[in-house]
Amino acid sequence: MYFSDKFPHGSPHPTPSLQGDRKGSFSDLGWTNTFAGLGEAFYSRVQPTPFDGAAWLIHINRGMAQTLGLDAEAMDESALLANLSGQAVPKGADPLAMLYAGHQFGTYVPQLGDGRAIMLGEIRDPANRPWEIQLKGSGLTPYSRQGDGRAVLRSTLREYLCSEAMHGLGIPTTRALAMVGSDEEVYREHIEPGAMLARLAPSHVRFGSFEVFFYRNQYDHIRSLADYVLEHHYPELKETANPYQSLLVEVIQRTARLIAKWQAVGFAHGVMNSDNMSILGLTIDYGPFGFLESYQPGYICNHSDYSGRYAFDQQPNIGLFNLSCLAQALLPLFDDDPNQGAEWAKSALAEYQGIFVKTYASLMRAKLGLQEALDEDQSLLEDLLSLMQQGGTDYTILFRKLSEFTCGGLRDANPPYVIRDLFLDREDFDAWAERYALRLQKENSVDDERCERMNNVNPKYILRNYLAEVAIRKAEDEKDYSEIDSLFKLLQKPFDEQPENEHYAAHPPDWASGIEVSCSS
Ligand code: AMP
Ligand code: MG
After folding, report:
1. Could you list the residue range(s) of the whole structural domain that residue 328 is in?
2. Is it the case that residue 518 has pLDDT exceeding 80?
3. What angle do CA 335, 338, 340 make, to 5 degrees?
4. If you measure from the C-alpha of residue 330 to the centroid of ligand 2, how many angstroms do you get, rounded to a whole number?
5. Which of 10, 93, 236, 518 could serve as 480's disulfide partner, Cβ 3.0–4.6 Å?
6. For the segment 100-112, what is each residue's pLDDT rounded down to a tens digit?
7. Catalytic residue check, 275
8. 436 in a domain, yes or no?
9. pTM of the prediction?
């Protein structure tokens, strides 16, 4: 049984439940909530608010359900729908909204918190890994401020598809288990249908979860939260000389590597506030994200980011800014002498750039199919990128096609010069191609082997904004969810040749340039 196929072409109503005696229901998963054990200074207990009107399952991530230990054949879908739409809380769950603060667009905002997400609780999968399961869009919480606690179908669908796409690309991310649709009207710039996302991560603790206690001078709470994170997510660090310092070092490393992966694949997050930065180094809080299409390093995907603070090429710097916010919040734990602690934190943060550059260089070298590291590689890459910028070359298409390059020059493909034609100034590209051929010869690169290696790191399929937009329009206008399912399957295997899906790898249509995404989701 493939769950998504049970709701083909827009049938909005759940099919009758399949009863079985295997692990088919959420309540069978053995719920706990270790985060709740921290005490009420860290969260507010709150129940999800079901939709006003009908709710139905739009899509279930079958692979994720299996990972959690749910038995697809024994799945009780109506019970699952009740759990995923906030109508019934699974047995043993202890729902809560987490408190946090954060730097938004560079300014400290003292109290944020889960304003429209509720953590139902935590389960362990058959491999004994912890998963917190949240419902996003599940109604008001004490942290909702002026918001309505809801999420619209459009943004839910984008997060659902993109988190699966990022996972397929091998980039650390929160995951998604299912999407629920509803007829409830949600007011944004227009009236839109409300939806809920079941989101999962081993932990949803953010940099801002620590910041809130630093600014309130509640240093005991910083320690308790750090101890919790160490105990549950970094147990190996507890044995080190200073576990709190080790925690910061580890988060610096993970964040540097994460952002290097974003840069290499051309992902722009769009709203890298410190409350949207995961203590586990995961991509979290998908909103106005975008993938580079025509290569513009200053690409701003978030329509409300007027200053370009979160432009694509700013992400590595912003990562460091956010890590500095985290380091500051952890300062009280580093050393009895605050000056010593601050000096140590500065030296730890100074490592970030080196880790980022090293990771990025190695990812980009792999994208070029290079196996050895030579000094000249940086200028080879920079010159290629600048030719791409000049010509507005599509980032994903170019790197994918580059695998067809041969050391003797351009393969006589049909249509000919399939790579060269992606550039505005073809003679400049020819000069670059000659250098590239020489560079490949230096390491005796074998064309076919390189082609295979390159195709394993240069995706053919990414979640272009317009692809998501087509799925959104069908879902909103006709309750037709078939495109969600097609993209979902496509993006799980972004490196595979999928001849039947070739059209998804094409250049975006002209109308795509008019799509605007912003924070209002
Ligand atoms: P974001 O920009 O999505 O990371 O959200 C920033 C803050 O606003 C977080 O505390 C969110 O929980 C909160 N928030 C965003 N949208 C809503 C909404 N519709 N209702 C309540 N809170 C929201
Ligand atoms: Mg957020």
Report:
1. 215-362
2. no
3. 65
4. 21
5. 10
6. 999 999 999 998 9
7. yes
8. yes
9. 0.94
Q: State whether 445 and 412 are in the same domain.
A: yes
Left if phi > 0, otherwise alpha if psi is -120 to 50, otherwise beta: which for 267? beta
Indicate if 226 and 351 belong to the same structural domain.
yes
Select which of 94, 275, 285, 305 is catalytic: 275
Cα(276) to centroid(ligand 2), Å? 5
Same domain? 116 vs 90: yes
* CA of residue 143 to ligand 1 center, whole Å: 9
Q: What is the pLDDT of residues 433-452, one digit of tens each?
A: 999 999 999 999 999 999 99
238 in Cβ contact with 354 (< 8 Å): no
User: Is there an atom of ligand 1 within 6 Å of 142 CB?
Assistant: no
Residue 19: CB atoms within 10 Å: 12
In a domain, 5, yes or no: no
C-alpha span between 393 and 294 (Å, rounded)? 5
Atom of ligand 1 nearest to the CA of 117: 12
Domain match, 260 and 391 both: no
d(CA 333, CA 102): 19
Rounded to whole angstroms, the Cα distance separating 162 from 484 reads 11
- Per the structure, the count of domains in the chain is 3
Q: Is the CB of 111 inside a 6 Å radius of any atom of ligand 1?
A: no
Are 178 and 286 members of one domain? Answer: no
Q: What is the pLDDT of residues 258-280, one digit of tens each?
A: 999 999 999 999 999 999 999 99
Asked if residue 272 has its Cβ within 6 Å of ligand 1, the reply is no
